[in-house]
Design brief:
Layout (H helix, E strand, L loop, with lengths): L1 H23 L1 H11 L2 E8 L5 E6 L3 E6 L3 E8 L2 E8 L2 E8 L4 E5 L15 E3 L6 E8 L5 E6 L4 E6 L4 E7 L2 E8 L2 E8 L6 E3 L5
């Protein structure tokens, strides 16, 4: 009976010592502290050549602007926030979970971010503002003034004969028009990376 009691005491002591060792680990203390903190870290990495801005609306309101090729690290109260953001001169809105730390990645206009951390902690703004770099080719032998438009976006471009250019636009279906070979040419164009917009004279 005494041997059995000693064995139980030994097991209890071993478990107690193991718990003390786990609690002494730096990572365990960090997690405990993070769990007790009412605030959380929010990071914005702007890789684009345009300024990025975001407004957060929750238990409190915050506004941040991040210069091109810059980083911002801030602390906000934990919670779920609604937001409006502007990137590459276009806007979008949504919600963000800031009960956990988050890093928002702002890619180059027309690109996507490739976060290296855990996806649950990373946000790619191109999931909200879907931009694409399109190629426009003037196949005519004369200068062309192109009008490319949707209900929300309008673009005017001047192209020299046989000139090729690129333009970053939101992914959408566009109406285009231009005058060439003495006629007004018009049509629809789906803005996609691998599909160029070729300007041609249909009558000649």
């Amino acid at each position: 009976m005494k041997k059995l009691t000693l064995a139980r005491v030994s097991i209890f002591l071993a478990i107690f010592v193991a718990l003390l060792l786990v609690m002494a680990l730096p990572g365990s203390n960090a997690l405990a502290d993070e769990g007790q903190s009412p605030n959380v870290r929010f990071t914005i990495l702007n890789y684009s050549h345009q300024p990025f801005s975001i407004n957060l609306y929750g238990s409190e309101q915050f506004s941040y602007t991040v210069a091109p090729y810059s980083k911002l690290v801030t602390i906000v109260p934990r919670g779920t926030y609604s937001f409006t953001m502007e990137a590459c001169k276009h806007t979008s809105s949504g919600t963000i979970n800031l009960n956990i730390y988050q890093t928002m990645h702002v890619p180059v206009c027309g690109g996507t971010a490739k976060p290296v951390g855990e996806k649950i902690h990373d946000i790619d703004t191109s999931d909200y503002i879907k931009m694409v770099r399109i190629t426009i080719r003037n196949k005519t032998k004369e200068p062309v003034r192109l009008y490319l438009r949707t209900l929300d976006n309008h673009y005017y471009l001047n192209l020299l004969p046989r000139e090729t250019t690129t333009l970053v636009v939101p992914r959408d279906r566009y109406v285009y028009s231009f005058v060439a070979c003495g006629d007004l040419e018009a049509g629809y164009y789906e803005a996609r990376v691998m599909i160029p917009l070729d300007l041609k004279c249909t009558s000649k």
